[in-house]
Amino acid sequence: MFKEAHLKIFGRVQGVFYRAEAQEKAQQLGLKGWAKNAADSTVEVLIQGAEASLQEFIVWSKKGPEMAHVTEVKVDFTTLPAKLYDEFRIF
Core-most of 27, 47, 59, 79, by most CB within 10 Å? Predict the structure, then answer.
């Protein structure tokens, strides 16, 4: 089933290539969406795709790249996305 998830990742996640590696992981899993740094030093990710791939990405997001130190990941799921993305972008 196609789903969408919005993630907010807390910890040392800016300046450690989190967004770039999130993009690589999303592309490996066939997911679409975006990742961006937030003003509160978190990273926000919106991903769309098959539920199994979303779950795999969420598991990855709790660790992130080698230099990251993730302390928490908040996840909100949606079954009817407002907008469909055709790729994964970094903002």
Answer: 47
